[in-house]
Amino acid sequence: MSRQDFIDQLKTLGYNPEDQGNNRICFEYTIPVGKFIGQTIRLGFVVGDDFPANPPSGPHISPHLLPINTSSNVHPAGGVHDNREFGAGWQYWSRPFNEWAKFDRSVSTYMAHIRHLFETQ
Asked: What is the model's pLDDT at position 116?
């Protein structure tokens, strides 16, 4: 499988992903739960050629939703970095999916992880 599989699975879920090169994929996302419910953001991922063996790292988000806090990696407030990998106005949330190998390694499962991050804000 590959990055293209990730893109294809996003499309199946109803998203309109854009391949931005350098392993970067982004798309519009309306937050379905939590304190940011209803806000539409840009959600980005760096998806390696080894997908689905390994998931993307944590999400890249634009505009900034959380204050920058690099002093810890504890969710929900820590591990939030200013990140310009996707361009100005993006932040990176260090939120690895540590349990990936216990699941089916699908984009649907990864997006459930993302939903959970917003639910637990």
From this structure: 96
Do residues 70 and 60 make contact, with C-beta atoms less than 8 angstroms apart?
no
Residues 6+ apart with CB under 8 A from 55: 96, 97, 100, 105, 110, 113
* The pTM of the whole model exceeds 0.90: yes
Two tokens, residue 71: 């002093």
Could you say which DSSP state residue 37 is in?
Answer: T
User: Cα(first)–Cα(last) distance of the chain, in Å?
Assistant: 32
**Cβ density class 63-95: b for 16+ within 10 Å, e for less:** eebeeeeeeeeebbeebbeebeebeeebbbbbb
**Given pLDDT bands bounded at 50, 70 and 90, which one contains residue 1?**
low
The values of phi and psi at residue 83, to 5°, are -140, 125
Q: What is the CATH number of domain 3-119?
A: 3.10.110.10
117 phi and psi angles, rounded to 5 deg? -60, -40
